[in-house]
């Protein structure tokens, strides 16, 4: 399973701090935001490679960062060719670039449906946004996908209606099978909010490859999750601990204050 990190945004809400520097590589204590996430993901046996999709403006910075890393799994940096926020491709198109890279590698024949279930290596993908601090391991998420044998999304309970109106919201049954997903609903049908972390198994990657041409939105990773819920069976894993979303200067400095000594 490949770990695909979507890191091609321009973080305009952080102002001068990220005008010429990528948000995922900002420091929280002695490590970067991205480094804290990869420290966990790199230890997961199912993961075989980290594919980081960034933009042309920041690609050289990621390459320099990569040259200083010593993770067990190889890191590949993909430059999506954009140089401004106005010309960005969008998270879904950046994901498609990573899948196209995987297709071209052709390292081995694609596994058959259900191979992940037995613990065998799969060319499915873990897709993560690069601007969160997490207080759980992605191993739990991957184990859940193995158990269900389907592509999966994460979820967490969000009591605030106002916050639910600004994110993806799902309806699930007792087995956490996703029945419905809405983006930024004015009248949320549940309190299950969806953070930007997903697993798409090999059996569903063809749907992903053709998602944009079939009407899927391009901008946010939640656009693809919404599309996939309507076209295949997906389950939702309830996060067992919290996360800290770094989306503004205030939240970045709050993260330094709270977690910079870890």
Fold and architecture overview:
The protein has helices at residues 33-41, 56-67, 91-105, 138-148, 161-164, 205-209, 221-231, 249-259; strands spanning 2-6, 27-28, 31-32, 49-54, 75-79, 125-129, 132-134, 151-157, 168-172, 178-183, 192-194, 197-200, 234-238, 243-245. It is an alpha/beta fold and 262 residues long. The strands form 3 sheets. Strands 1, 4, 5, 6, 8, 9, 10, 11, 12 and 13 form a 10-stranded mixed sheet that branches. Strands 2-3 form a two-stranded antiparallel ribbon. Strands 7-14 form a two-stranded antiparallel ribbon. The chain is globular and about 45 Å long. Mean pLDDT is 92; it is low at 113-121.
Total beta strands = 14
- Total helices: the number is 8
Which structural class should the secondary elements be placed in?
alpha/beta
Label the overall shape. globular
Low-confidence stretches: 113-121
Average pLDDT, rounded to a whole number, is 92
- Sketch the major β-sheet: 10 strands, mixed
* SSE pattern, N- to C-terminal: EEEHEHEHEEHEHEEEEHHEEH
Q: What is the subunit arrangement here? A: single chain
Helix content: 25-40%
């Amino acid at each position: 399973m490949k770990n695909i990190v979507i890191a091609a945004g321009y973080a305009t809400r952080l102002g001068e701090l990220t005008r010429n520097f990528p948000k995922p590589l900002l420091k929280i204590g002695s490590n970067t935001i991205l480094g804290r996430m990869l420290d966990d993901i790199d230890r997961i046996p199912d993961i075989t490679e980290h594919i980081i999709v960034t933009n042309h403006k920041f690609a050289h910075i990621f390459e320099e960062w990569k040259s200083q890393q010593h993770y067990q799994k190889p890191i590949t940096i993909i430059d999506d060719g954009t140089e401004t926020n106005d010309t960005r491709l969008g998270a879904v198109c950046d994901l498609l670039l990573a899948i196209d890279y995987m297709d071209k590698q052709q390292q081995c024949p694609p596994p058959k449906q259900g191979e992940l279930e037995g613990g065998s290596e799969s060319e499915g993908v873990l897709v993560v946004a690069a601007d969160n601090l997490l207080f759980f391991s992605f191993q739990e998420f991957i184990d859940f996908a193995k158990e269900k044998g389907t592509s999966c999304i994460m979820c967490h309970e969000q009591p605030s209606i106002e916050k639910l109106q600004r994110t993806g919201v799902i309806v699930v049954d007792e087995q956490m099978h996703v029945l419905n997903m809405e983006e930024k609903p004015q009248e949320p049908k549940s309190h299950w909010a969806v953070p930007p972390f997903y697993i798409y198994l090999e059996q569903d990657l063809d749907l992903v490859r053709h998602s944009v041409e079939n009407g899927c939105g391009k901008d946010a990773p939640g656009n693809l999750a919404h599309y996939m819920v309507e076209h295949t069976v997906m389950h939702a894993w309830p996060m067992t601990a919290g996360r800290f979303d770094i989306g503004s200067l205030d939240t970045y400095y709050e993260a330094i204050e709270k977690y910079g000594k870890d």
